[in-house]
Structure formats: C-alpha cells, structure tokens
Amino acid sequence: TMVVIPCPMEFLIGSPTTEAGRFDDETQHKERIGRTFALAAKSVTVEQYRQFDDGYKLPALYTRMADLPVVETSWHQAAAYCNWLSKEEGIDQDQWCYEIKDGQVTKLKENCLSRTGYRLPTEAEMEVATRAGALTSRYFGETEDLLPKYAWYTKNSQEKTWPVGSLKPNDLGLFDVQGNVYTWCQERYKGYPKGQGEEPEDDKEDILGINNLNSRVLRGGSFRFQASVVRSADRSDNVPTFRGNDIGFRPARTFTP
To answer: Do residues 183 and 250 lie in contact, with contact meaning Cβ atoms separated by under 8 Å?
Structure first.
C-alpha cells in the first residue's frame, strides 16, 4: 500500500536550535519538493523480500514472523528490490531508476526523480512524510510519553524488531516512520546549507555515480536507540554496502513527473 503525498510543497526541514536531542547537522532551512510522490505505508517485510530473494536468511530473532521488517539489506539490495518491483508491476524498463550490474548499483539513472519506477525515498521526502505537517520534534508532539504508542525504541522494543504496522500510524497513514528499523534514503549524506535565506532549497537528483565509500542517508531511528534519536529531524548514514540488523527500507515512486 502506497500513500500519495501531493506536491509541490515547501516546508521546514531540520530542527530548531531549541529542540531537545538535536545534532549540529540538522540546520533548519526551507526545502521544496516539486513532484507528487508516493511512499510505502510500511517497511518491506521478510515475506515480501523473500519473493525477490528466496535465499534470504537471518537469525530467527529477525525472521520469527513473516511480517517483521526485512533487515540486513544493503542500500544496493534495497535499490535492486525497487527495480524488481518495477518489473513485477509491468513498469516500462525505461522508467526504472537504477542501473545494476552483478548485484551492485553502478549509477542512478538520469532524471531518476522524474521516472515513475520504484526507488528509495529522498531524505526530504522521508522527513516531510514523517512529519505529516507537524513542526514538533515528532509527528504527534514533543513529549516522549506518547512515543511507545507510535514507535519501537529502547523503552519498549526488547532489543528486537516487531511486525510492521502494529503501532499507531502518523496522520498520513504511514507506520513505523520512526523507530523499529531505519530507512535507507536515495542520496549521499551531505551537510545542510548553513544559510537560512528566504529561497528554499530544491530537492533534486544527487550525483549519478555510486561510490561505495560515500555514505547514504538513513532516517527514522530504530529499535536499538533511545528517544532522543527517534525524532523527525534526526539524520544518520552508512556506506551503501553496509548491512545492519536495524536497517530496512520502504519503496517510493514519483506519482506525477
């Protein structure tokens, strides 16, 4: 199930200096997304991923139920799943978003954010989807008191993943955009602009080539982290070959080029 998020839209990305738990890389600034896009309501599950890779195996802790979020998938594997999903749904190959050779993404296709195939969400798309219109540190407000109703994190996770969609969604109908597992994003991790001018930054294509030494963005926090990390503006990153037991993904696609 995909949730359509109408755009163009301008919004504040990042966090104010007064936000509890913030890091220096969250400089608040205006961002503009010029395309309507759709984002999966839930993370890809173990059962869904095994339709793509029937050899996928992990310890029982992370595969004990079919509707647990798939983890230990690299950025390359997540992107390959998106291409496969485009193929399964009969989307023309010229609309796919990744060039892949021997299981590795060699480059993003030119104008990939205008193509209609499945892809990973951009960092800006993830933040606007997570916030669901809220300016507070979490989509339901500031306090940690309500967090266990919406997110799996250190306080309630028992150090393991939980079935997708088993807690409350945000106001857009998206589940687990905070906590449970991190979400791989499309682009490289890079610093935010330091200026806070009136003109918004456009969310646009990253450089097309893939360098495995350049980290990609991760969003949302996970079951392994404390509440201060499970915030809408929190940013993390890792190299695209990394496979972590608290990292998953959810597909996105451009709804109207």
So the answer is: yes
Task: Note if the pTM is more than 0.70.
Answer: yes
Residue 224 CA to residue 236 CA, distance in Å, equals: 13
Euclidean distance between CA atoms 170 and 41, whole angstroms: 10
Tokens 């294509």 correspond to 205
Q: Which of 156, 176, 173, 149 is nearest to 165 (CA)?
A: 176
- Angle 57-248-133 from CA coordinates, rounded to 5°: 160
The three-state DSSP-derived secondary structure of the chain is CEEEECCCEEEEECECCCCCCCCHHHECEEEEECCEEEEECCCCEHHHHHHHCCCCCCCHHHHCCCCCECCCCCHHHHHHHHHHHHHHCCCCHHHCCEEEECCEEEEECCCCCCCCCEECCCHHHHHHHHHCCCCCCECCECCCCCHHHCCCCCCCCCCCCCCCCCCCCCCCCCCCCCCCCEEEEEEECCCCCCCCCCCCEECCCCCCECCCCCCEEEECCCCCCCHHHCCCCCEEEECCCCCCCCEECCCEEEEEC
113 Cβ partners below 8 Å, 6+ apart?
A: 35, 119, 122, 203, 204, 205, 254
Q: pLDDT digits over 59-100, tens only?
A: 999 999 999 999 999 999 999 999 999 999 999 999 999 999
Which of 53, 87, 47 has its CA nearest to residue 70? 47
